[in-house]
């Protein structure tokens, strides 16, 4: 199916004088697993932040599942079906892993709800508990479900971030560097978990640097360089794509030049 689930057009964003996204056009079809690549500072996280309502855009449009979402607040975008994870997840110190997952549920009820409509509220709570337990199992967090979330390793926090994102049954999941800081053994487990989600119908957009991860997961890669898209190709075409090489080599040369300037300053 070639139906576009997400359609970003003419997206522009600057922080002060720093133009970070410069007319980005990007479409994601239902069922795709798109890798969003590019050197550090090329605008990947900013693109995710804007698509999920955590940052406002300066210009352009974003349509998700047929509805413009660029003016919606983050929680409304979640309600429309886009969930996300963060590059650096932070966890509440006093809650258990299970409690954090439960807190991310959309089936939350206040005390009045529980008192006034006890049966539906309890049913919803039980359904959320069952869902949290299933997702914790699928993302390998079952053994640590009663530990404080803050005690998890960096990699486990990333997995818990995915669990939380999935509690609302999104149509699309956007992941910001899901394997950065994650033990290599765990990376393949994350790939397998994401492939299972995709097989069940979820569309994925993944910001990632690990090439092995990208190759084993993505159906297509989009490469950003200084706020512009310079390539859209299959993962196995990345290595031979000149624009991609230029983006990474250019960034490396730029960083070397900056380092040299600092060293001689
Ligand atoms: N909230 C912000 N305020 C000011 N500058 C920002 C902010 N967020 C990102 N930037 C800048 O935007 C550029 C792109 O950042 P980012 O989107 O995080 O890149 P990437 O995720 O590709 O490494 C960087 O120069 C960064 O310093
Ligand atoms: Mg980033």
UniProtKB/TrEMBL annotation:
Is Chloroplast one of the keywords? no
For whether the record's keyword set contains Manganese, the answer is: no
- Gene3D superfamilies hit by this protein: P-loop containing nucleotide triphosphate hydrolases (3.40.50.300)
> Cross-referenced PROSITE patterns, in alphabetical order?
ABC_TRANSPORTER_1 (PS00211), ABC_TRANSPORTER_2 (PS50893)
**Gene Ontology terms, MF aspect:** ATP binding
Q: Could you tell me the keywords of this UniProt record?
A: ATP-binding, Cell membrane, Membrane, Nucleotide-binding, Transport
- Pfam families for this protein: ABC_tran
Output the superkingdom of the source species: Bacteria
The UniProt record lists the ABC transporter domain at 6-251
Q: Which InterPro entries match?
A: AAA+_ATPase, ABC_AA/LPS_Transport, ABC_transporter-like_ATP-bd, ABC_transporter-like_CS, P-loop_NTPase
Q: What is this protein called?
A: ABC transporter ATP-binding protein
